[in-house]
Design brief:
Layout (H helix, E strand, L loop, with lengths): L1 H37 L8 E2 L2 H4 L2 H18 L5 E13 L3 E11 L4
Antiparallel strand pairs: 1-2, 2-3
Length: about 110
């Protein structure tokens, strides 16, 4: 009987070690997957724009349109001029949605 009991303990111990090993493998896979996905932006998530993208003519056109719109809303005496697009984020929704940080300057033109 002592040999049977020892065999049962060894089987239980082996099964427990196997479960621990399986859990370690699963944990490693989950961590690897998390790290792989962490570097990639999710669909629809805002993405920071590169310096080359900030000087793209389309982005500058959007920024100039924003400055003109702000001028129309403020109804000021002098107009504003786009100096530089400092930073930006682009988000893919039904099209592109841009969030731009811009520097402007007042002109003497009315």
């Amino acid at each position: 009987a002592p040999n049977i009991r020892r065999y049962e303990q060894e089987v239980v111990h082996y099964e427990w070690k196997q479960k621990c090993y399986n859990m370690k493998v699963l944990l490693c896979l989950l961590v690897s997957l998390s790290l792989a996905l962490a570097g990639k932006p999710r669909d629809g998530a805002p993405v920071a724009m590169t310096p080359d993208e900030l000087t793209d003519p389309t982005v500058l056109e959007i920024a100039n349109f924003a400055v003109s719109t702000i001028d129309a809303w403020t109804n000021g005496i002098y107009r504003s001029k786009l100096v530089k697009v400092v930073a930006g984020r682009r988000q893919l929704v039904a099209g592109f949605r841009y969030s731009l940080d811009i520097d402007t300057a007042m002109t003497t033109c009315s």
